Input
Amino acid sequence: MNSAAWGKPITKVYEGQEIKLCCKPCIKKFEANPAKYLAKLPK
Output
């Protein structure tokens, strides 16, 4: 399955930075460990 199959990304603002997540379950994963995901974003 590719990300296009999930529909529009979910946008969340974290510490003033806009984050796009693929689905609702990923919101919980992000909130549990935001540093893990923020480290993967381009600077």
